[in-house]
Amino acid sequence: xxxxxxxxxxxxxxxxxxxxxxxxxxxxxxxxxxxxxxxxxxxxxxxxxxxxxxxxxxxxxxxxxxxxxxxxxxxxxxxxxxxxxxxxxxxxxxxxxxxxxxxxxxxxxxxxxxxxxxxxxxxxxxxxxxxxxxxxxxxxxxxxxxxxxxxxxxxxxxxxxxxxxxxxxxxxxxxxxxxxxxxxxxxxxxxxxxxxxxxxxxxxxxxxxxxxxxxxxxxxxxxxxxxxxxxxxxxxxxxxxxxxxxxxxxxxxxxxxxxxxxxxxxxxxxxxxxxxxxxxxxxxxxxxxxxxxxxxxxxxxxxxxxxxxxxxxxxxxxxxxxxxxxxxxxxxxxxxxxxxxxxxxxxxxxxxxxxxxxxxxxxxxxxxxxxxxxxxxxxxxxxxxxxxxxxxxxxxxxxxxxxxxxxxxxxxxx
Length: 414
Description:
Helix content is 7%, strand content 36%. It has three domains: 3-181, Agglutinin, subunit A, CATH 2.90.10; 186-312, Bulb-type lectin domain (Agglutinin, subunit A, Orthogonal Prism); 316-412, no CATH class. The protein is built from two helices and 33 strands.
C-alpha cells in the first residue's frame, strides 16, 4: 500500500471526508472535476468501503506489494479484506505474544481460520512480498521463511474471497494457489479435506505451530489420532450414519452437517448432522482444538453455539490430564487426579500432569534418552490396564528401566 492509500485509510477511519471545490474559471473547474472523478474511479477498482473504523478496505492486491505488522499497525496487521468484510488477511501476534503469523481471520468472531507460517513464526518487522512469481514471508535478514511459489502461470492478483479462501490469480482470473488446499486446524463451509490430508492441532491459542493431534481422512472413514494411535472414529460416533461403502474422496461441511463424500455428489458415505439454533446466525467452523477435541461451532461477534464435540467423553482425549494424570468420568464431564505417589506438576503452563513426589524418581530430560545417559532405556507396552474402574488419559504405558539407580518404575506417559 503506498502512502497515499494509507492516508486514505486513516481518513476513512476517522469519519467521512467532505470535499469542497473553490470557485475557479470554468475550464479550470472542469479539469479539476475530471481529475477528481478519474482518481476516484481508479481507487474504486482496488478499494472497498471499510466495514468498521480502522479496518482494511483493500480487496485486491497487485504484484510489487509489501506489508508488515509495523506498517499496518493501525489496522492490527490487517492488509486485505473480502468484499463483504467478513474475512481479513492479517500479520498478527495471537494474544499479544512476540511471535507473528500470516493468517486469515473471521472478523466478527475474531477467529483465525488459516495460518501460513505455522512452524516458522516471524517478527513484527518481517515482510510479506507479493510478486509475479507468488507471495512469501521474509525475516528481518531477508531470508524466506514461507512461500507460495512455483506456480503454473504469472501472478496477477491476490484476493480474499467471501468464503475465507485466500487465492492467487493469473490475468485470466484462474486460480494458481489457494489457502483452502492447505488447511491448518480449521475447516470452513465450501472447503474440502481430501483423502490422505489432515487437520493438525495448534500447540495452544498463543503458539500456532503444529501440535500432536490430527484429523485424518482415510479410504472409508475419518479418525482422530495422537502419535499414530486412533482415539476417535467418525463412523462409530452415535451421531454419525454410514450410508454407502464407496471409497471416500473428501470430507466437507455445510450448514446442516459434516459429510464424507465419494467421487460424486450423490455418493455420501457417512453423514453427521447437527442443529443450528433457529435464532442464532453465525459462521460454522470445524476445528481440531489444541486439546485434541474436534469441535463444530456456530460463531458470531457476540456468542458461540456449540454444535458438536468429539470424543463425547473427555477422558478419551490422550493428554486431557497431562503426563501421568488420571482422568475419571463424572457428571461434569471429567476430572483429573494424580496417583497417591504423584503430585500435580506445577512447572507446566496449564498446571496439568503429575510428577513423582520423590524427585529422585523423576524422568531424565529429554525423555527419549538423547541426553547421553546410556543407562536409561524406554520400552513401549501396549494393551495394559492400570485399574479396572479407572481409565487413564493415555494410550500406552512406558516402562522406565533406570539401571544407574537400580530402580524400575512404571508410570503412565503420553
